[in-house]
Automatic annotation (TrEMBL):
Protein name as catalogued: DUF427 domain-containing protein
Leader peptide range in chain numbering: none
Matching Pfam families: NTP_transf_9
Record-annotated DUF427 domain positions: 3-88
Species whose genome carries this gene: Laspinema olomoucense D3b
């Protein structure tokens, strides 16, 4: 079962992930919200839409914008609406 780990903490774990462009997108109900803080960062993808970001905070350590999701997606990416993906040192084990 895929899981996302950073700084020794399991951030998300699910067997219902969606893989898009090589990234595991975790369902919203699989993330451990205590590690996530809203970020003001946004980026745009031509076919998925506007991404929003989370900072990951574990034991006082902050990994800025280490997770992203698409709260509103274009039709081509509807299967990942609200799902969360990771980068910036977050290890995703499959």
């Amino acid at each position: 079962m895929p899981k996302a780990i950073w700084n020794g903490a399991i951030l998300a774990e699910s067997d219902r992930c969606e893989v898009v462009e090589g990234n595991q997108y975790f369902p919203p109900d699989s993330i451990k919200s205590e590690y996530f803080q809203d970020s003001n960062t946004h980026t745009n993808c031509p076919w998925k839409g506007q991404a929003s970001y989370y900072d990951i905070v574990v034991e006082g350590q902050v990994n800025k914008d280490a997770a992203w999701y698409y709260p509103n997606v274009k039709d081509a990416a509807k299967q990942i609406k609200g799902y969360v993906a990771f980068w910036r040192g977050v290890k995703v084990e499959v």
